[in-house]
Amino acid sequence: MNIEELTYPTEFSPEVKSATDELYKGISKIIPEVEWPFHAPLVHEINKLKKEKNIAILTHNYQTPEIFHCVSDIVGDSLKLAYEARDVEADTIIVCGVHFMAETAKILSPEKNVLIPDNRAGCSLSESITAADIRLLKQKYPGVPVVTYVNTSAEVKAETDVCCTSGNAKHVVESLGTDTVIFLPDEFLAQNIAAQTDVKIISWKGRCEVHERFTAAEIMSYKEQHKDIVVLAHPECSPDVVAVSDYTGSTAGMSNYVKDNQPERVIMVTECSMSDNVAIENPNVNFIRPCNLCAHMKRISLKKIYDAIRFNQFQIEVEDQIIDRARLAIDRMLEIGRK
Ligand code: 13P
Ligand code: SF4
Prior knowledge:
By secondary structure, the chain is α/β, with parallel strands linked by helices.
């Protein structure tokens, strides 16, 4: 590597300042003014290069505010990012999220160049199950349809009848019209869906390492301290946590709840950056933040996005025959839609 390849834009010049002032105003409640000169030169350069190279940046709700609000073209939950990856007009898609999200984008847009800024950004759910595991389950329960959470590898999706996300899991399970489904790999999501439906659910032992850390006792202690608090939980939390929550939904569902209901005080039982991003858009709502970090999501940074653009890295590659089979499962989910 030469010295140029190791350096990053750092000059907070008058040009950079005036080009990024509006963006900073949007996030000034969360990012202190002293920090902005470190972000602004990279934000400016990424936004310039993105236009020149016809790149679309698709960003998950768990990314930090300077990524989420300042360089992204499309933001959302896993389901929205899947729809947008299929439809977006760009030569290159950069996914600011974790590896399964970038793989989903590649499966839906195989002709596009799909990049992830750090290819070590994994997911404990995705790592909990392999394609061989699914094949064994299908042998054990012949004829029972397999519903797989999108937080899985392309190889696992290829063995699946239909995918789902936290935004449509119950709807997908019920749409199959069977009395039993195999639902993988999230044990807690499976239990939370089983509590809302008559369909019998055969589950797996995967867990989200971020959401499994929240406890009902912790949430109850916030409720005791703040009598007026509204608790919003992600369905990857345990059923005990869900039981003491006022609303359970995907990251988009939680964000829409705040936008539509404008509660006085809210607690989002999910990854840390969610509250930051939603707080920026809802200045009249008070946020209590018992957050847990997703170390995988946090591998993505402005510097790595800049490197992704200039070095065209890290390219997502999926074998054609896996794409063809995984695509069927994702397309079925997209046809079923969100509910
Ligand atoms: P959403 O689909 O709700 O955005 O969740 C993705 C995820 O990884 C949650 O941990
Ligand atoms: Fe995976 Fe949990 Fe991180 Fe989401 S928050 S990417 S489910 S480890």
